[in-house]
Amino acid sequence: MRRLVVLLLIPPSALTLLVAGAVAPFGWMLLLAVILGAVAVIGLAVAVFWAFPSPAPDPPGVLLSLILGLVLAPLVLAAKASHAYVLEVRGMTRPAVVTRVVEHHGKSTSYECVLRYGGGGQGPGSVSCEEDDRVGDEVRVVWDPEGAVKPEFERDVGDASSYADFAVAADLLVMCLTDGVAAVGFVKRRTDARSRAAATPGGA
Fold first, then answer.
1. Is the CA virtual torsion 23, 28, 33, 35 positive or negative?
2. What is the pLDDT of residues 136-172, one digit of tens each?
3. Measured CA distances, 125 to 99, 109, 155, 167, 169 (Å)
4. Which of 48, 107, 121, 138 is most buried by its number of CB atoms within 10 A?
């Protein structure tokens, strides 16, 4: 029963990562994306730790960071695919000039470019940008008229199909690795059980 539950838990949890990423770019669904992402990560963690005998192995910090990065990769790539798809399908493009670069400080430093459009053109008042963007730079802005996703400079809009392919590949990798780790856990569980049985008087 334990094996069945673990095997049934891994695929839906991994697929939920893709769903969470796909809805993340839509601001009004951000909370749903966070909930789905948390459920997916917890589901994968439970599957792995439940497969191992108690106590479960405690990975070092560096390895734990790599594991978390791998698990979140499908979510991030799916978010990029969804964002790029919206801009590809119904995005509008306008030339603009950077009039001011605002630096925001928090856990990390981010930058925001304030824009001016020529010829009476309309578009977003500002766009997230990079440290090397300067006042006076001529840029092309892509945005969704319905405001479902954030605007971007045309240079930063990726290919939606490529992002989607990478997201699916990363998700399959997460499923395969999680299944592999769970299988190792079950083998270890059986080995430990046999060792205990052999060590029990009369158990050999």
1. negative
2. 999 999 999 988 999 999 999 989 999 999 999 999 9
3. 10, 20, 18, 31, 36
4. 48
Q: Which amino acid is at 22?
A: A
Mapped onto helix, strand or coil, the DSSP state of residue 68 is helix
pTM for the whole thing? 0.81
Cβ within 8 Å of residue 88, ≥6 positions away: 157, 160
For 42, 77, 81, the CA distances from 162, given in Å and listed in that order, are 28, 9, 8
Q: Which amino acid is at 66?
A: L
Contact between 96 and 115 (Cβ < 8 Å) = yes
Q: Where are the alpha helices (DSSP H) in 56-116?
A: 61-90
What is the separation of C-alpha 152 from the centre of its chain, rounded to a whole number of angstroms? 19
> What is the helix, strand, coil percentage profile of the chain, to 5?
60, 15, 25
Q: State the pLDDT at residue 204.
A: 46
Question: Could you give the C-alpha distances from 122 to 94, 102, 117, in angstroms and in order?
Answer: 8, 21, 7
Q: What are phi and psi of 28, to 5 degrees?
A: -75, -10
Contacts of 60 (CB under 8 A, 6+ apart): none
Instruction: Decide if 123 contacts 142 (C-beta within 8 A).
Output: no
